[in-house]
Structure formats: C-alpha cells, structure tokens
Amino acid sequence: MTKQHIGILALLVIILPSCSYFDFSPDLRFCDDFYVVVEEMPVLIGGMAELQQKVVYPELARERGIEGRVTVQFIVNKLGDPTEVQMVRGIGGGADQEAVRVVKQAKFEPGKQNGKPVCVQYQLSINFRLEN
C-alpha cells in the first residue's frame, strides 16, 4: 500500500463517521431482542374501542354465525409499530385474518425500560360478535 492510499484511508476514517449520508444508527423498526415485561408497557394509541371499530366482520364468519375472540401476538418495536404479527388463538371464518390485518395497522406508544424505548412482546384480543 502506498503512502497515497494510506492517506486516503485515514481521511475516510475521519470523514465518514461524521458524514450524514451514512447512517450508522441501529434501525429502530427491527428488534434483535425483546422484553415481555417492562417498566412502561406499550400503550395502544386510540385505545381498544377505536381499534375494534376498524374490524370488518368477515362475510363467511357472518354466514356461519361464527363469534368469539381472536388473540394476536406481536412485538411492538421502538417506534411503536407492531411487527411479527401472528394469530395465537382463532375462531376461523376469516376472523383470524381480519384480526391480524387490524392489529398490523395499530400504532402504539412504545414500551420503555430505564426511560428508553425498547421492543416488547404484546398480545391483544379482538372480539367478533354478531348483532341481532
């Protein structure tokens, strides 16, 4: 390696970390690790009533008279978005997929540990009740 190459390398080591073009901060959307319980648990923005209003009762479930509760588990990331959303207890008739769809649209205030946002595993239950 020539002296010119070493000089350029040294310059890059000095300039690149301060350059705003390169973002070396961790991506807050992804969770390498998560908590189950934290000092401040995530809070659903708008509450369960608002989330429940977004549910569209699946036609198949309506035709078959399917009612019940679908439980969905997910990770609330450091930005308050649900990730890795999956149904853990379902009732069928399209209700399981509808519950997952609605939860994916939810927004949370992220959970905090020691005052810092962290990823937290969370569960919600979506109710499906036919009106008479």
Question: Could you explain how this protein is built, in words?
Answer:
The protein has a single domain, classed as TonB (TolA/TonB C-terminal domain), CATH 3.30.2420.10. Helix content is 28%, strand content 27%. It has four helices and seven strands, in the order αβααββαββββ. A hairpin with a 2-residue loop joins strand 5 (111-113) and strand 6. The model is unreliable at 7-25 (pLDDT under 50).
Instruction: Report the uncertain regions.
Output: 7-25
Helical percent range? Answer: 25-40%
> What is the correct CATH architecture?
2-Layer Sandwich
Shape: elongated
Strand proportion: 25-35%
- For the secondary structure, the number of strands is 7
